[in-house]
Amino acid sequence: MPHIVFLYATAPDPQTAASLARTLVEERLIACGNVLLGLRSVYRWEGAVTEESEAALLCKTTADRADAALARLAELHPYEVPAISRFDAANALPAFAAWIADEVTSRSSPPA
């Protein structure tokens, strides 16, 4: 069974999160990205406590693709210091893990 990894990131709005997810899916770095709405973040930035509305992005990939997906997510992200974390899944449903692995496997284009 493939080793499954989740990448978690916050984004300034749902549109940005969806755009990040779409690019990573199109590039076969992730199988799926879930955009979670209604996130309210409270944090300290440059010495001041800040509170902002954000969206969360949960990406599903394999351990083999996780480093590349994380690097690409950081490259595309609009934040100066994006909040991106990696979580390794311990017990994914085998069929789900197989689907993720299949989706992030590079495939050649079908003949024209």
TrEMBL record:
It comes from the Bacteria. GO terms for molecular function: copper ion binding. Signal peptide: none annotated. It holds the Pfam family CutA1. Gene3D superfamilies: 3.30.70.120. One of its GO terms (biological process) is response to metal ion. Belongs to the CutA family. This is Divalent-cation tolerance protein CutA. It comes from Alienimonas californiensis. The lineage of its organism: Bacteria, Pseudomonadati, Planctomycetota, Planctomycetia, Planctomycetales.
